[in-house]
Write a structure and sequence with these properties.
By secondary structure, the chain is α+β, with helices and mostly antiparallel strands. The chain has 3 helices and 5 strands; from the N terminus they run αβαβββαβ. Keywords: Signal.
Length: 102
């Protein structure tokens, strides 16, 4: 009797792990428009725009459809140092995997 219960427990655990793995693989990425209605513009703080958002590897940034990689992602808008110094840059840390869409 104990062997049957143990066997069923192992089977149930294996099924649960497979279901969790399936959810992680089949999650839908989120698309973000950088700066929301303002866009990539000096009129807003791009670093402030990233605060409070939970970015995940595979999420997509804006019109250019840039997928985020796991870990640090760094963006600048120009090779002009004055624009970078003025705030036209941002850093995003993307965690993995994205959450389930359910």
């Amino acid at each position: 009797m104990r062997k049957a219960i143990r066997g069923n427990s192992i089977l149930a655990l294996a099924i649960l792990l497979l279901m969790l793995q399936y959810e992680a693989i089949h999650s839908v990425p989120v698309t973000y428009k950088v700066g929301d209605d303002y866009g990539w513009d000096l009129s807003i703080s791009l670093q402030a725009w990233t605060r409070g958002k939970n970015f995940h590897a595979g999420d997509i940034l804006g019109d250019d459809k840039i997928p985020l990689a796991f870990g640090g992602n760094y963006f600048i808008c120009s090779t002009r140092p004055d624009l970078c110094a003025a705030g036209m840059k941002m850093a995003i840390n993307a965690t993995a995997p994205p959450p389930s869409s359910k």
